[in-house]
Amino acid sequence: MPTKKSFFNILLFALLTFAFVVSLASADTACILTPKPSDAPQINGPEVFGVRPQNPFLFTIPATGKRPMRFSVQNLPKGLSIEENTGHITGSIEQEGDCNVTLQAGNEMGTAKKTLKIKVGDTIALTPPMGWNSWNCWGCAVDDQKIRAAADAMVSTGLINHGWSYINIDDCWQCGENKREPDTGEIQTNEKFPDMKALCDYVHSKGLKIGLYTDCGTMTCGGYEGSKGHESQDIMTYAKWGFDYVKIDWCHTEGMQPRRAYKKFGDAIGKAPRDIVFSICNWGEQKPWMWGKSLGGNLWRTTGDITDTWDSMSGIGFSQDELYKFAKPGHWNDPDMLVVGRVGWGPNLHQTKLTPDEQYTHISLWCLLSSPLLLGCDLTQLDDFTMNLLTNDEVLAINQDRLGKGAKPVVINQLPGGESTQIWVKYLQDGAKAVGLFNLTDEKKQVYVNWERLDIKGKHKVRDLWRQKDLGLFERSFKTEVNPHGVEMIKISAQSG
Ligand code: GAL
Predict the structure, then answer these.
(1) Which of 207, 219, 489, 495 is the most exposed place for a label (fewest CB within 10 A)?
(2) Which residues contact 288 (CB under 8 A, 6 or more apart)?
(3) Please, what sign has the CA dihedral across residues 226, 232, 235, 240?
(4) 436 is a domain residue
């Protein structure tokens, strides 16, 4: 029988737990900065889209607003058609050239329009790829069902309406080493992926694209069959299955030259009968930013693997200061995938260890850097904070800006103890500038930027991008208080703009 005292202790414990959970929940809600999208239609996503002639075309119009929604396109090139209930545009375009189309999304509240430039030519990934990858989430515990669930959730959560469009399978889908099809040498899947073609068809039917992973060496990092000696054959197999993206890793490559090894994949991808985004993943060895583009690389990892800690994320993100020169439409620096939401690298997931402020820093910096945005969390378990963090269309528009510039630091204030505040700037297509005022210290700090540092003069409009709020006109400088490990992300435009 519990005594009176132990009963009291249990009650006290229950009350304290309840208070703790409530305080956590309200802290979480208090950190939500972005207003919810309105019911009126709004078309999000890129303003430019690259495709190779004659290859299969898939673009889903990303639009927020109340459903049902009707989609249409004016001036759609010959060979393409649109499904009016979903906004999926499919088909293929015969000839090279540019074409401006007007996307339209309508519901009971009205109609939104947006111009999209379709560039039919050699270069794809004209804006950084946005999507999901299985690694930071499931690691080797990935399987067909988890990929389907991620695709379903990308649509049901509404992430697709903000331009999130790739579902990428990482390591551990292949057969064991040397277990290829004996007669043809064709790569085989393991039992967790019974039918890759059916899986690709499923993901495509949702209006999403799908990616895969391989390795230049004899084995992948997870110990499965690599592509060495089968580079072109493997790319053709992925194309036959229906993949739109391939990440190529660098384990078990003793004695190999990255440039030579990756060229074989680049050449094969150039000949494939579908558009495949080419992701070089050799952790920045031998500076892939110097040669990745010449091999047809659309993105190249610049560092080792990220984890969900401040040291890892900020160490990687803030060390990208020299690489802005190499980011351009079709060719992106890749400081690794995002570590927000529930991550785990295996069957057991946990909430990211980054604080809300650190997560704002993470997303702001990756958007300013024009980095690919690949979510590494379980999309079926998105909390309100994470969802809000990933659906701010003004912030995502900075990442997707069609000028394709990378950000650079213009002020680094070194403080005693090795800490700093930093100001990073990205030039935008419309002449405005996106600016991140970062506080890397453990205390609140005033962060200040003088117009001279931004090469501007006179009155300028300042908009707070996370809160989607105009802050007014500023004549010489902008100053604000920034939370520890946090950021203020603003857009500065000429007064008339
Ligand atoms: C690493 C790579 C990770 C992940 C992993 C899979 O080399 O950087 O992103 O792909 O291999 O084994």
Answers:
(1) 495
(2) 258, 262, 280, 282, 297, 300, 301, 302
(3) negative
(4) yes
Q: Is the CB of 334 under 6 A from ligand 1?
A: no
> Which atom of ligand 1 is least distant from the CA of 221?
12
DSSP assignment letter at 68: S
Q: Whose alpha carbon is nearest atom 8 of ligand 1?
A: 305
pLDDT 10s digit of each residue in the chain, 497 long?
445 556 556 555 555 555 444 444 444 556 999 999 999 999 999 999 999 999 999 999 999 999 999 999 999 999 999 999 999 999 999 999 999 999 999 999 999 999 999 999 999 999 999 999 999 999 999 999 999 999 999 999 999 999 999 999 999 999 999 999 999 999 999 999 999 999 999 999 999 999 999 999 999 999 999 999 999 999 999 999 999 999 999 999 999 999 999 999 999 999 999 999 999 999 999 999 999 999 999 999 999 999 999 999 999 999 999 999 999 999 999 999 999 999 999 999 999 999 999 999 999 999 999 999 999 999 999 999 999 999 999 999 999 999 999 999 999 999 988 899 999 999 999 999 999 999 999 999 999 999 999 999 999 999 999 999 999 999 999 999 999 999 999 999 998 74
Q: Looking at ligand 1, which atom is closest to the CA of residue 139?
A: 6
218 strand-pairing partners? none
Residues 425-455 as b or e (16 or more Cβ within 10 Å = b): bbbbeeebbbbbbbbbbeeebebebebeebe
For residue 222 and ligand 1, the question of a CB distance below 6 A is answered with: yes
Range of the domain at 269: 130-399
Mutate which of 305, 308, 336 for ligand 1? The one with the most ligand atoms within 8 Å of its CB, which is 305
In CATH, what number is assigned to the domain containing residue 461? Answer: 2.60.40.1180
Tell me whether residue 414 is in a domain: yes
CATH number, domain of 73, equals 2.60.40.10
Q: Is the pTM of this model over 0.85?
A: yes
Single out the residue of 61, 70, 53, 65 nearest to residue 102, CA to CA: 61
Rounding to the nearest 10 degrees, give the CA dihedral for residues 125, 127, 128, 129: -50
Neighbours of 17 (CB within 10 A): 10
